[in-house]
């Protein structure tokens, strides 16, 4: 069941003049909501059909490109000096540029090390500046355990916003 909500602030649109117009507006919202649901369902069906039609071929081509790239890499690795002039890491053919490129630098534990061991070492060798600790308030626990009149002492208050809503009726009358 879809809910359509607006805030209670006045809008710069048309103004409803009486209760009959109000009821007609609500009914219009319901009819347009049904039309929206129908269009969204049709869109989802069409999108799913496109995925069903194209995903197998896309997956097959991706696997084939990966396989061929690995074959090319296996052939090129022992022949780097032949393929690339001194100091170069890439070459070209009529349809491709190929070669080697460096990825983004990243840290990983050295052989025999784990991240837990590294954290322990950083703690014991006064290198805590390299450790990240994120502290955030547990809002749910505060709301459950702190009495409303004591929230102000913590710099908090409970806020609830009232919103206007219209729900389409789904019952068959």
TrEMBL record:
Name recorded for this polypeptide: Host-nuclease inhibitor protein Gam
An example Gene Ontology molecular-function term: double-stranded DNA binding
Biological processes, Gene Ontology terms: DNA protection
Source species of the chain: Akkermansia muciniphila
InterPro entries: Host-nuc_inhib_Gam
């Amino acid at each position: 069941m879809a809910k359509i909500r607006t805030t209670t602030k006045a809008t710069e649109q048309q103004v409803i003049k009486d209760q009959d117009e109000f009821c007609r507006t609500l009914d219009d919202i319901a009819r347009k909501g049904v039309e929206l649901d129908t269009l969204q369902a049709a869109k989802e069906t069409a999108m799913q059909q496109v995925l069903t039609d194209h995903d197998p071929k896309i997956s097959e081509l991706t696997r084939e490109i990966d396989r061929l790239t690995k074959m090319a890499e296996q052939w090129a690795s022992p022949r780097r000096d032949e393929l690339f002039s001194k100091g170069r890491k890439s070459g070209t053919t009529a349809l491709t540029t190929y070669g080697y490129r460096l990825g983004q630098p990243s840290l990983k534990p050295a052989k025999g090390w784990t991240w837990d061991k590294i954290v322990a070492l950083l703690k014991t060798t006064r290198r805590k500046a390299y450790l990240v600790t994120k502290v955030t308030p547990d809002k749910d626990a505060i709301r459950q355990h702190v009495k409303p009149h004591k929230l102000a002492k913590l710099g908090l208050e409970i806020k609830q916003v009232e919103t206007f809503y219209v729900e389409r009726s789904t019952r068959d009358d």
